[in-house]
Structure formats: structure tokens, C-alpha cells
Amino acid sequence: MSKERARKRAEREREAAIRAAARAAEAERAERRATRKQVLTRWLPRRSSRPSGILAERRRRQVGATIALLLAANVLVWVFFDDWAARAMVAVVSPLAAPVLHTMLFRR
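The structure corresponding to this sequence follows.
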């Protein structure tokens, strides 16, 4: 019985060693791949996180102005109206009215 257990234990250890070697080989391949990628992409320019250019800048400015107007409207309603229903209505209608306001302000 003990010879059988020893044989099974040796077989389990051998399989574990094979799996560990496979994991180590895969880790080494991944490391070589990452190093190769870093060497190849080192000379390339970095991509910017957002579009750059005149049109993109204009669009960002327009969207910022629209958001600022809606935020100002919400703050004014919050300050000058004590009715919670009016405050809630403006808070709900503002996001819905944003595309309409943007179109009205910046139509070509």
C-alpha cells in the first residue's frame, strides 16, 4: 500500500513540476514579447488621449460653454427658488434640454 502511495505522490509531483515549467516558460515568453514590443515602440510618438486640432478644440469650447450655461441655470434656480419641485424639475430638464440649447447656440 505504501509503495502505491509513494508512486502516486511521485506522479503528482512530476505533473506539478511539468505545470510549473510550463508556467515559467510562458512567463519568459511574455517577458520577451513585452521587451520586444517596448524596443519597437520606443521610437514611435505617443498617442494623445484626446483628439487635437482646431475642430476638436472648437467642439470642446462649445461643449464647455453649454455645460457652463446649464450649470449656471441650475445654480440660479437653486438660489432663487425655495420650491423643491422647481429645483427638481430644472435638474431633470437640464440634461434633456442640453442638445437643444447646444444646437440653438452653435448652429452653423
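The CA atoms of residues 70 and 95 lie 8 Å apart.
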